[in-house]
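Format notes (please read before filing issues)

Several people have asked whether sequences and C-alpha coordinates are stored in separate files. They are not. Every record keeps both together, in the order shown below: the sequence lines, then the C-alpha coordinate lines. Line labels are part of the format and must not be stripped during preprocessing.
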Amino acid sequence: MKMNATSTRKTRFESIGTYLPEKVVSTTELMSKGEADFFKLVDLQEITGIENRHVRSDCEDSYTLAIDAAKECLKNSKYEAQDLDIIIYTGITQMKGSAKQFLYEPAMSLYIKNTLGAESAMNIDISNGCAGMLNGVYILDAMIKSGTVRNGMVVDGECITSAAEAAIKEIDNVFDEQFASLTLGDAGAAVILDGAADDGEGIDFTYFLTAAEHAELCIGLPSEQGNGIVMYTKAKEIHDAAIDLIAPLLDDALVKNGKDIDDFDYYLAHQTSTRALASGGRRLKRHFDRDIDLLINVPQCGNTASTTHFVALHRYLRENTVKKGTRIMFAAQASGLVLGCVLATIGNMEV
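Then the structure lines:
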Protein backbone atom coordinates (compact mmCIF):
# COMPACT_ATOMS: atom_id res chain seq x y z
CA MET A 1 0.00 0.00 0.00
CA LYS A 2 1.29 3.43 -0.95
CA MET A 3 0.30 6.56 0.91
CA ASN A 4 1.62 10.02 1.60
CA ALA A 5 0.62 10.38 5.25
CA THR A 6 2.19 13.14 7.29
CA SER A 7 2.33 13.48 11.06
CA THR A 8 -0.35 15.53 12.80
CA ARG A 9 -0.53 17.09 16.25
CA LYS A 10 -4.07 15.97 17.01
CA THR A 11 -6.64 13.52 15.69
CA ARG A 12 -10.42 13.71 15.85
CA PHE A 13 -13.58 11.63 15.64
CA GLU A 14 -14.59 12.46 12.08
CA SER A 15 -17.79 10.40 11.91
CA ILE A 16 -19.76 7.72 13.73
CA GLY A 17 -22.25 5.02 12.89
CA THR A 18 -24.13 2.43 14.93
CA TYR A 19 -26.49 -0.43 14.29
CA LEU A 20 -28.97 -1.83 16.81
CA PRO A 21 -30.87 -4.99 15.84
CA GLU A 22 -34.59 -4.47 15.30
CA LYS A 23 -35.59 -7.12 17.83
CA VAL A 24 -35.96 -5.77 21.38
CA VAL A 25 -36.22 -8.06 24.39
CA SER A 26 -37.40 -6.64 27.70
CA THR A 27 -35.86 -7.71 30.98
CA THR A 28 -39.22 -9.14 32.00
CA GLU A 29 -39.35 -11.25 28.84
CA LEU A 30 -35.75 -12.42 29.28
CA MET A 31 -36.29 -13.49 32.88
CA SER A 32 -39.51 -15.32 31.99
CA LYS A 33 -37.42 -17.78 29.96
CA GLY A 34 -35.50 -19.00 33.01
CA GLU A 35 -36.69 -22.22 34.63
CA ALA A 36 -34.89 -21.97 37.97
CA ASP A 37 -36.96 -20.63 40.87
CA PHE A 38 -34.75 -17.61 41.37
CA PHE A 39 -35.82 -16.13 38.01
CA LYS A 40 -39.28 -15.60 39.52
CA LEU A 41 -37.89 -14.06 42.70
CA VAL A 42 -35.25 -11.62 41.39
CA ASP A 43 -36.15 -8.21 39.93
CA LEU A 44 -33.31 -7.87 37.42
CA GLN A 45 -34.61 -4.54 36.12
CA GLU A 46 -34.55 -3.07 39.62
CA ILE A 47 -31.02 -4.38 40.23
CA THR A 48 -29.52 -3.25 36.90
CA GLY A 49 -31.75 -0.46 35.64
CA ILE A 50 -31.94 -2.26 32.29
CA GLU A 51 -35.41 -2.24 30.74
CA ASN A 52 -34.58 -3.56 27.27
CA ARG A 53 -31.77 -4.85 25.11
CA HIS A 54 -31.46 -5.36 21.35
CA VAL A 55 -30.97 -8.95 20.21
CA ARG A 56 -29.72 -10.06 16.78
CA SER A 57 -32.02 -12.03 14.52
CA ASP A 58 -31.15 -15.49 13.21
CA CYS A 59 -29.66 -13.93 10.06
CA GLU A 60 -27.47 -11.44 11.97
CA ASP A 61 -24.01 -11.97 13.45
CA SER A 62 -20.90 -9.99 14.41
CA TYR A 63 -20.04 -9.40 10.77
CA THR A 64 -23.47 -8.06 9.74
CA LEU A 65 -23.72 -5.82 12.82
CA ALA A 66 -20.28 -4.37 12.06
CA ILE A 67 -21.03 -3.89 8.35
CA ASP A 68 -24.29 -2.04 9.03
CA ALA A 69 -22.55 0.26 11.53
CA ALA A 70 -19.64 0.85 9.12
CA LYS A 71 -22.00 1.76 6.28
CA GLU A 72 -23.77 4.33 8.46
CA CYS A 73 -20.42 5.71 9.59
CA LEU A 74 -19.38 6.18 5.94
CA LYS A 75 -22.74 7.79 5.14
CA ASN A 76 -22.02 10.35 7.87
CA SER A 77 -18.43 10.89 6.68
CA LYS A 78 -16.69 12.96 4.04
CA TYR A 79 -14.73 9.83 3.15
CA GLU A 80 -15.60 6.99 0.81
CA ALA A 81 -14.56 3.44 1.68
CA GLN A 82 -11.72 3.58 -0.85
CA ASP A 83 -10.26 6.59 0.98
CA LEU A 84 -9.61 4.63 4.19
CA ASP A 85 -6.01 3.75 5.03
CA ILE A 86 -6.80 1.14 7.68
CA ILE A 87 -9.74 -0.78 9.15
CA ILE A 88 -9.45 -2.11 12.72
CA TYR A 89 -12.00 -4.64 14.00
CA THR A 90 -12.21 -4.71 17.80
CA GLY A 91 -15.02 -7.05 18.81
CA ILE A 92 -14.94 -9.69 21.51
CA THR A 93 -17.23 -11.78 19.33
CA GLN A 94 -16.25 -12.79 15.81
CA MET A 95 -19.30 -14.65 14.54
CA LYS A 96 -19.86 -14.95 10.80
CA GLY A 97 -22.40 -17.16 9.10
CA SER A 98 -24.00 -18.04 12.42
CA ALA A 99 -24.54 -16.19 15.68
CA LYS A 100 -22.91 -19.14 17.46
CA GLN A 101 -20.06 -19.93 15.05
CA PHE A 102 -16.75 -18.22 15.83
CA LEU A 103 -14.51 -17.08 12.97
CA TYR A 104 -10.77 -17.32 13.63
CA GLU A 105 -9.21 -16.88 10.18
CA PRO A 106 -9.14 -14.89 8.02
CA ALA A 107 -9.49 -11.73 10.08
CA MET A 108 -12.95 -10.19 10.45
CA SER A 109 -11.46 -6.87 9.37
CA LEU A 110 -10.55 -8.42 6.02
CA TYR A 111 -14.15 -9.43 5.34
CA ILE A 112 -15.31 -5.96 6.36
CA LYS A 113 -12.69 -4.29 4.18
CA ASN A 114 -13.66 -6.34 1.14
CA THR A 115 -17.40 -5.85 1.63
CA LEU A 116 -17.04 -2.07 2.01
CA GLY A 117 -14.73 -1.81 -1.01
CA ALA A 118 -11.79 -0.37 0.95
CA GLU A 119 -9.34 -1.97 -1.43
CA SER A 120 -6.18 -0.08 -0.42
CA ALA A 121 -6.76 -0.21 3.33
CA MET A 122 -4.64 -2.20 5.75
CA ASN A 123 -6.68 -4.34 8.12
CA ILE A 124 -6.08 -5.73 11.60
CA ASP A 125 -8.16 -7.32 14.36
CA ILE A 126 -7.77 -6.39 18.03
CA SER A 127 -9.60 -8.00 20.93
CA ASN A 128 -9.26 -6.69 24.47
CA GLY A 129 -12.54 -7.33 26.22
CA CYS A 130 -14.93 -4.43 26.63
CA ALA A 131 -12.04 -1.98 26.10
CA GLY A 132 -11.77 -3.11 22.47
CA MET A 133 -13.11 -0.07 20.62
CA LEU A 134 -11.31 2.43 22.82
CA ASN A 135 -8.10 0.39 22.39
CA GLY A 136 -8.66 0.58 18.65
CA VAL A 137 -8.98 4.35 18.96
CA TYR A 138 -5.77 4.39 21.03
CA ILE A 139 -3.85 2.54 18.30
CA LEU A 140 -5.34 4.45 15.37
CA ASP A 141 -4.75 7.78 17.13
CA ALA A 142 -1.05 6.90 17.46
CA MET A 143 -0.82 5.72 13.84
CA ILE A 144 -2.29 8.97 12.51
CA LYS A 145 -0.15 11.16 14.78
CA SER A 146 2.99 9.30 13.68
CA GLY A 147 2.16 9.74 10.00
CA THR A 148 1.78 6.00 9.39
CA VAL A 149 -1.77 6.51 8.09
CA ARG A 150 -3.93 9.51 7.30
CA ASN A 151 -7.22 8.12 8.57
CA GLY A 152 -8.96 4.89 9.46
CA MET A 153 -12.03 3.19 10.82
CA VAL A 154 -12.47 1.37 14.11
CA VAL A 155 -15.44 -0.98 13.74
CA ASP A 156 -17.10 -3.52 15.97
CA GLY A 157 -20.01 -5.96 15.95
CA GLU A 158 -20.87 -7.44 19.32
CA CYS A 159 -23.10 -10.47 18.95
CA ILE A 160 -22.87 -11.08 22.67
CA THR A 161 -26.37 -12.12 23.78
CA SER A 162 -25.52 -15.79 23.22
CA ALA A 163 -23.88 -15.49 26.67
CA ALA A 164 -27.24 -14.34 28.06
CA GLU A 165 -28.97 -17.26 26.35
CA ALA A 166 -26.51 -19.67 27.98
CA ALA A 167 -26.97 -17.98 31.35
CA ILE A 168 -30.75 -18.37 31.22
CA LYS A 169 -30.30 -22.12 30.79
CA GLU A 170 -27.47 -22.62 33.27
CA ILE A 171 -27.97 -20.20 36.20
CA ASP A 172 -29.67 -21.60 39.28
CA ASN A 173 -29.08 -18.89 41.90
CA VAL A 174 -28.49 -15.14 42.21
CA PHE A 175 -24.86 -15.65 43.21
CA ASP A 176 -24.04 -17.55 40.01
CA GLU A 177 -21.07 -15.94 38.22
CA GLN A 178 -23.06 -15.89 34.97
CA PHE A 179 -25.55 -13.43 36.49
CA ALA A 180 -23.87 -10.42 34.80
CA SER A 181 -24.46 -12.08 31.41
CA LEU A 182 -28.16 -11.25 31.79
CA THR A 183 -27.30 -7.56 31.22
CA LEU A 184 -25.90 -8.07 27.72
CA GLY A 185 -27.23 -6.63 24.45
CA ASP A 186 -26.14 -6.80 20.80
CA ALA A 187 -24.89 -3.80 18.79
CA GLY A 188 -22.58 -2.63 16.05
CA ALA A 189 -20.55 0.59 16.13
CA ALA A 190 -17.95 2.33 13.98
CA VAL A 191 -15.94 5.54 14.10
CA ILE A 192 -13.62 7.16 11.56
CA LEU A 193 -10.61 9.09 12.82
CA ASP A 194 -8.46 11.56 10.90
CA GLY A 195 -6.26 14.56 11.57
CA ALA A 196 -7.91 17.53 13.29
CA ALA A 197 -7.39 20.83 11.50
CA ASP A 198 -9.44 22.76 14.07
CA ASP A 199 -8.03 23.22 17.59
CA GLY A 200 -11.63 23.34 18.82
CA GLU A 201 -12.02 19.58 18.38
CA GLY A 202 -9.97 16.46 18.65
CA ILE A 203 -8.56 13.68 20.77
CA ASP A 204 -6.25 15.25 23.32
CA PHE A 205 -4.94 12.19 25.11
CA THR A 206 -5.25 8.40 25.31
CA TYR A 207 -4.01 6.36 28.24
CA PHE A 208 -4.35 2.66 29.16
CA LEU A 209 -3.04 0.19 31.71
CA THR A 210 -3.68 -3.42 32.66
CA ALA A 211 -3.97 -4.60 36.26
CA ALA A 212 -3.29 -8.27 35.52
CA GLU A 213 -3.66 -9.35 39.15
CA HIS A 214 -7.42 -9.06 38.54
CA ALA A 215 -7.42 -11.14 35.33
CA GLU A 216 -9.54 -13.94 36.78
CA LEU A 217 -12.45 -11.70 37.76
CA CYS A 218 -14.17 -11.93 34.35
CA ILE A 219 -13.62 -14.83 31.98
CA GLY A 220 -15.33 -15.69 28.69
CA LEU A 221 -15.12 -19.12 27.08
CA PRO A 222 -17.14 -21.64 25.08
CA SER A 223 -20.11 -23.10 26.90
CA GLU A 224 -19.67 -26.70 28.08
CA GLN A 225 -23.43 -27.27 27.93
CA GLY A 226 -24.14 -26.20 24.36
CA ASN A 227 -23.23 -23.90 21.48
CA GLY A 228 -22.22 -20.30 22.11
CA ILE A 229 -20.23 -18.58 24.81
CA VAL A 230 -20.44 -18.13 28.56
CA MET A 231 -19.11 -15.32 30.73
CA TYR A 232 -18.17 -15.83 34.38
CA THR A 233 -17.91 -12.57 36.32
CA LYS A 234 -17.18 -11.82 39.95
CA ALA A 235 -19.26 -8.69 39.56
CA LYS A 236 -18.71 -7.00 42.92
CA GLU A 237 -14.99 -7.73 42.97
CA ILE A 238 -14.32 -6.43 39.46
CA HIS A 239 -16.47 -3.35 40.06
CA ASP A 240 -14.66 -2.53 43.31
CA ALA A 241 -11.24 -3.06 41.71
CA ALA A 242 -12.12 -0.87 38.72
CA ILE A 243 -13.45 1.95 40.92
CA ASP A 244 -10.36 1.85 43.14
CA LEU A 245 -7.99 2.02 40.14
CA ILE A 246 -9.76 4.35 37.73
CA ALA A 247 -9.55 7.52 39.86
CA PRO A 248 -5.73 7.56 40.16
CA LEU A 249 -5.47 6.64 36.48
CA LEU A 250 -7.62 9.67 35.60
CA ASP A 251 -5.46 11.84 37.87
CA ASP A 252 -2.38 10.69 36.00
CA ALA A 253 -3.98 11.24 32.60
CA LEU A 254 -5.12 14.75 33.51
CA VAL A 255 -1.68 15.73 34.82
CA LYS A 256 0.07 14.32 31.74
CA ASN A 257 -2.28 16.28 29.49
CA GLY A 258 -2.27 19.50 31.51
CA LYS A 259 -6.02 19.26 32.11
CA ASP A 260 -8.33 19.44 35.10
CA ILE A 261 -11.54 17.52 35.72
CA ASP A 262 -13.41 20.82 35.32
CA ASP A 263 -12.26 20.95 31.69
CA PHE A 264 -14.73 18.17 30.83
CA ASP A 265 -18.49 18.28 30.39
CA TYR A 266 -19.28 14.58 30.67
CA TYR A 267 -17.86 11.29 31.89
CA LEU A 268 -18.71 8.31 29.65
CA ALA A 269 -17.90 4.98 31.31
CA HIS A 270 -18.44 1.40 30.22
CA GLN A 271 -22.19 0.83 30.41
CA THR A 272 -22.85 -2.12 32.74
CA SER A 273 -25.81 -1.13 34.93
CA THR A 274 -27.29 2.07 36.30
CA ARG A 275 -26.39 1.01 39.84
CA ALA A 276 -22.73 0.43 38.92
CA LEU A 277 -22.54 3.71 37.00
CA ALA A 278 -24.05 5.63 39.92
CA SER A 279 -21.62 3.98 42.33
CA GLY A 280 -18.69 4.93 40.12
CA GLY A 281 -20.00 8.48 39.84
CA ARG A 282 -20.19 8.82 43.63
CA ARG A 283 -16.64 7.52 43.99
CA LEU A 284 -15.33 10.06 41.46
CA LYS A 285 -17.32 12.84 43.12
CA ARG A 286 -15.57 12.11 46.42
CA HIS A 287 -12.20 11.86 44.70
CA PHE A 288 -12.45 15.07 42.67
CA ASP A 289 -14.70 16.95 45.12
CA ARG A 290 -17.17 17.90 42.42
CA ASP A 291 -20.27 16.51 40.74
CA ILE A 292 -19.59 14.30 37.73
CA ASP A 293 -22.09 14.45 34.88
CA LEU A 294 -22.54 10.92 33.55
CA LEU A 295 -23.74 9.84 30.11
CA ILE A 296 -25.93 6.78 30.69
CA ASN A 297 -27.37 4.65 27.91
CA VAL A 298 -27.70 1.24 29.54
CA PRO A 299 -31.49 1.21 30.33
CA GLN A 300 -32.57 0.74 26.69
CA CYS A 301 -29.55 -1.11 25.28
CA GLY A 302 -28.05 -3.11 28.12
CA ASN A 303 -24.32 -3.79 28.22
CA THR A 304 -23.25 -3.98 24.56
CA ALA A 305 -19.68 -4.95 25.51
CA SER A 306 -16.92 -3.14 23.60
CA THR A 307 -19.39 -0.98 21.63
CA THR A 308 -21.00 0.69 24.67
CA HIS A 309 -19.15 4.01 24.56
CA PHE A 310 -19.94 4.70 20.93
CA VAL A 311 -23.52 3.44 21.04
CA ALA A 312 -24.01 5.93 23.89
CA LEU A 313 -22.16 8.72 22.07
CA HIS A 314 -24.30 8.21 18.96
CA ARG A 315 -27.49 8.47 21.00
CA TYR A 316 -26.42 11.67 22.75
CA LEU A 317 -25.28 13.23 19.48
CA ARG A 318 -28.68 12.42 17.99
CA GLU A 319 -30.44 14.01 20.98
CA ASN A 320 -28.10 17.05 20.76
CA THR A 321 -26.93 16.58 24.35
CA VAL A 322 -23.46 16.18 22.87
CA LYS A 323 -22.61 18.70 20.17
CA LYS A 324 -19.66 20.52 18.69
CA GLY A 325 -17.36 21.62 21.50
CA THR A 326 -18.60 19.09 24.08
CA ARG A 327 -15.67 17.71 26.08
CA ILE A 328 -15.91 14.05 27.08
CA MET A 329 -13.78 11.81 29.25
CA PHE A 330 -14.26 8.27 27.91
CA ALA A 331 -13.32 5.66 30.53
CA ALA A 332 -12.62 2.00 29.81
CA GLN A 333 -13.13 -0.69 32.44
CA ALA A 334 -12.79 -4.18 31.02
CA SER A 335 -11.83 -7.70 31.93
CA GLY A 336 -8.10 -8.03 32.18
CA LEU A 337 -8.42 -5.81 34.26
CA VAL A 338 -8.03 -3.17 31.53
CA LEU A 339 -8.47 0.48 32.49
CA GLY A 340 -8.01 3.54 30.36
CA CYS A 341 -9.32 6.85 29.14
CA VAL A 342 -9.67 8.88 25.99
CA LEU A 343 -9.94 12.64 26.49
CA ALA A 344 -11.69 14.28 23.55
CA THR A 345 -13.52 17.38 22.35
CA ILE A 346 -16.30 16.51 19.93
CA GLY A 347 -16.47 18.28 16.58
CA ASN A 348 -19.32 18.69 14.12
CA MET A 349 -20.29 15.02 13.84
CA GLU A 350 -23.42 14.23 11.82
CA VAL A 351 -25.80 11.46 12.85
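For reference, the curators noted about this record: The two ends are 31 Å apart (CA to CA). DSSP finds eleven helices and 13 strands in the chain.
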